[in-house]
Amino acid sequence: IKLAGIDSAYNQSSSDGILQMCNEECGCSNIYNPVCDEALGVTYFSACYAGCQDEGKTENASSAEKK
């Protein structure tokens, strides 16, 4: 399993860690609740961390939650 920001680049970012510019203002909790992006083969720490604003997603929901 590739975890975004840990084992895998986070949306083409060169910095490490799950807190990135696209989600730093979201107020994501530190509770691990993984969300998979099957198309990219990447797992995010939670839907909040996957909900990057530059990807056209809301701050607290990933496209996986909207289905």
Automatic annotation (TrEMBL):
Q: PROSITE patterns from the xrefs? A: KAZAL_2
> Which InterPro entries does its entry note?
Kazal_dom, Kazal_dom_sf, OATP
Q: What is its main location?
A: membrane
> Record keywords: Transmembrane helix included?
yes
Question: What are the annotated GO cellular component locations?
Answer: plasma membrane
| Gene3D superfamilies referenced in this protein's UniProt entry, alphabetically | 3.30.60.30
Name where it's found.
Answer: Cell membrane
Q: Which UniProt keywords apply?
A: Cell membrane, Membrane, Transmembrane, Transmembrane helix
Q: How does it sit in the membrane?
A: Multi-pass membrane protein
A single Gene Ontology biological process assigned to it is:
transmembrane transport
Q: Which residues form the Kazal-like domain?
A: 16-67
Please report the name of this protein according to its UniProt entry: Kazal-like domain-containing protein
